[in-house]
């Protein structure tokens, strides 16, 4: 394995690892040699996945974590430290969404999304960074979204939370860079996940979306594997405070300036 991407002997903590992209990130890190701390609101939901990780020859520990609860974050950080000692990599993945027109968003909707995606991201990073700073080394990967830089109707609080993650990433990078800790934001574009699966059942919408993506397809989970390993590894040592969009190019704007020629029949 290329030493620039080899994570052997390192410990990675992935939040929100019971399903979806959280598991994609964890698998990629395990394949590159990292041992895993997996978290979810209910650790029982991680049982099968932990078995999968150990079958790859890696150590895996499952912990309860509710990122909306400060005591839960502190307890998880202490248990993670006790289980493995040093934590080298944090993937701040836990998140949620509520899709509604802006006029229908409730006070509780807003609090749920912002408390999970933004406040939770900060306080998990803070709790884990303490040990990284003491050691003088760490890789923090906050999971953002194409909505970190783009606005979409029906996603007002979600976009606000993900835009906040981007700004938070830059601030923490400046705060902790002198201590050997890099902080970056991995921002997926349109990927089919458990949260948005219903959208992908609408073929008309999928065709509309695909037309706006320069590479002409939505993302697949394996499109994210290389980039999470890159940001977690030695190869990214001089990169911090950045938002890396893995979006097939939809963030270029994807609005036609000319009428496409008709295909010959």
TrEMBL record:
In alphabetical order, the GO MF annotations are: oxidoreductase activity, acting on the CH-OH group of donors, NAD or NADP as acceptor
SMART domains, per this entry? Answer: PKS_KR
Q: Name one Pfam family in it.
A: adh_short_C2
Q: Which InterPro entries match?
A: KR_dom (IPR057326), NAD(P)-bd_dom_sf (IPR036291), SDR_fam (IPR002347)
Q: Which residues form the Ketoreductase domain?
A: 10-179
Q: Tell me the first and last residues of the signal peptide.
A: none
Q: Which PANTHER family match?
A: SHORT-CHAIN DEHYDROGENASES/REDUCTASES FAMILY MEMBER
Q: Which family does it belong to?
A: Belongs to the short-chain dehydrogenases/reductases (SDR) family.
User: NCBIfam families per the record?
Assistant: PRK07231.1 (NF005559)
Name this polypeptide is given: Gluconate 5-dehydrogenase
Source species of the chain: Bryocella elongata
Q: What is the lineage of its organism?
A: Bacteria, Pseudomonadati, Acidobacteriota, Terriglobia, Terriglobales
